[in-house]
């Protein structure tokens, strides 16, 4: 059945629906010589099998860089979409193949393909697998740090959910919003749920709001086990915040709120202490 080209931007200039072809098989298995022979014999590289999978998708899913190069040189559509809307770049990031990611980007793959209700961005996919090298490359190529997935939230949420501290550091150093929220749930909530002290410390260092409440009206510390290292860590930050804020109020309150905001050691936002809105109160000298 011929596919209508009503949405060429989304689906790409792909061919016909077919059973899984020999090109698909060779690409998937990394059989570069066989794939080259098929291409030279006139086999199409843009036929789509079940779920709109192209040979390029198959090669990327399995990190077959040589086959990816052959397919692209033969005219494979670099941003073709499968039935879920994923591009080959998404699949390469999911596989953690930095070489495939490089090849695709060199051939013009979009670092920010349009998202759908079923699609995560390449940056999300890289964060799921903890592929920090891919994360760095995508960011260097302009990947959107705040791309929003309906199920996962931002890439920073994904990195925290999957406990990949290296990816968290890369994202934050690149400027990702540390207090980005999905259903009022911040990355710090996920770090607390996973009992990751190292991740909690990194997030707080970058200004995570320890008072933020999610849609269950819970703070990050509420998701930790009492007496656990993660609970102790968050309690420590809460106590340091309270002590420092009380101290600065005593010292500066007579001079007004403007003086408090200008203090070099304690820069406090106008957000309420319950953390429902606004960002973290940035405290110098602790952490």
TrEMBL record:
InterPro entries: Ankyrin-SOCS_box_domain, Ankyrin_rpt, Ankyrin_rpt-contain_sf
GO terms classed as biological process: positive regulation of protein catabolic process; protein ubiquitination
Gene3D superfamilies recorded: Ankyrin repeat-containing domain (1.25.40.20)
Taxonomy, superkingdom: Eukaryota
Entry-linked SMART domains: ANK
Pfam families (alphabetical): Ank_2 (PF12796)
Annotated ANK repeat ranges: 51-83, 84-112, 118-150, 151-183, 183-215
Keywords in alphabetical order: ANK repeat, Repeat
PANTHER family in the record: ANKYRIN REPEAT AND SOCS BOX CONTAINING 13, SOWAH (DROSOPHILA) HOMOLOG
Family: Belongs to the ankyrin SOCS box (ASB) family.
Protein name: Uncharacterized protein
Organism: Amphiprion percula
Record lineage: Eukaryota, Metazoa, Chordata, Craniata, Vertebrata
């Amino acid at each position: 059945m011929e596919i209508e080209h009503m949405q060429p931007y989304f689906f790409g200039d792909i061919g016909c629906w077919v059973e899984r072809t020999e090109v698909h098989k060779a690409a998937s298995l990394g059989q570069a010589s066989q794939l080259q022979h098929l291409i030279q014999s006139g086999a199409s590289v843009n036929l789509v099998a079940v779920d709109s999978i192209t040979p390029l998708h198959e090669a990327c899913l399995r990190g077959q860089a040589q086959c990816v190069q052959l397919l692209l040189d033969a005219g494979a559509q670099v941003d073709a979409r499968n039935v879920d809307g994923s591009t080959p770049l998404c699949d390469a990031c999911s596989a953690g193949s930095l070489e495939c990611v490089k090849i695709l980007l060199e051939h013009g793959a979009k670092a920010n393909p349009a998202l759908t209700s079923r699609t995560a961005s390449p940056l999300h996919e890289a964060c799921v697998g903890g592929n920090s090298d891919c994360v760095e490359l995508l960011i260097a190529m302009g990947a959107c740090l705040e791309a929003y997935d309906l199920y996962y939230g931002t890439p920073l949420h994904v990195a925290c959910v999957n406990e990949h501290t290296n990816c968290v550091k890369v994202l934050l150093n690149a400027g990702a919003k540390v207090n980005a929220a999905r259903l009022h749930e911040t990355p710090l909530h996920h770090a607390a749920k996973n009992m990751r002290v190292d991740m909690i410390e990194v997030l707080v260092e970058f200004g995570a709001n320890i008072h933020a409440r999610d849609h269950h009206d819970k703070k990050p510390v509420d998701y930790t086990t009492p007496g656990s290292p993660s609970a102790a860590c968050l309690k420590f930050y809460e106590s340091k915040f309270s002590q420092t804020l009380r101290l600065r109020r005593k010292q500066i309150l007579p001079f007004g709120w403007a003086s408090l905001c200008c203090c070099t050691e304690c820069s406090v936002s106008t957000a309420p202490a319950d953390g429902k809105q606004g960002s973290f109160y940035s405290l110098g000298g602790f952490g």
